Batch of 2 targets.
Target 1
Amino acid sequence: MGGAGLAGRTAVPAMREDCMIDRKKAEEALRKLAEQEKMNVEEIREEIQRAIDAAYDNPDPKYRKEWSKVPFAGERPTPEDVIMYVVREMKERGTGGTDPA
């Protein structure tokens, strides 16, 4: 998973105590999606990760700015990181961010 990434970006730690619960819910959302799509969880994760990687490597400054808001601990965001971020953003904006699981 190479690519440009965010030059000079320091990953935001995503594992606060409250994030542990969110991560479990994100993992459950992936399990439910896998069941719905009649795929295994790893296939779903890989497909989503490919989409994340393609988007994350976009050099457009407006997209770089948005990715800089997503908290993650590794080299790049995981499906769980993105699910947790999107749900939190939706809740904060009042746009229907219910728990994904």
Target 2
Amino acid sequence: MSRVVVSVIGQDRTGIVAGISKVLAENNVNILDISQTIMDNLFAMIVLVDISNAKVDFATLKKDILFDETLDFFCQKEILFYEPSNNLIYPNSRVYYKAMERLVEKE
């Protein structure tokens, strides 16, 4: 399984979840988990997806998801958050850089 975390932040409006879900479905990407909230008209969502059976590669999928310039999107492979023992990786740590090296080797 190849998992990706998609984060979305922006002003709340109708159709944000529908737009992202449409892009994912069109590319055969499975939503594993989703969490969203609205705080004083600010929309925030995190989606964990499986891209193992995606019709396109990660780079292309990332471009497809970034379809709305009014929202901030972040798409990151899950490996960037964890080391093999499932401990959290902190940015700029030695473990973070090792995970980045492994990610580059796999692509």
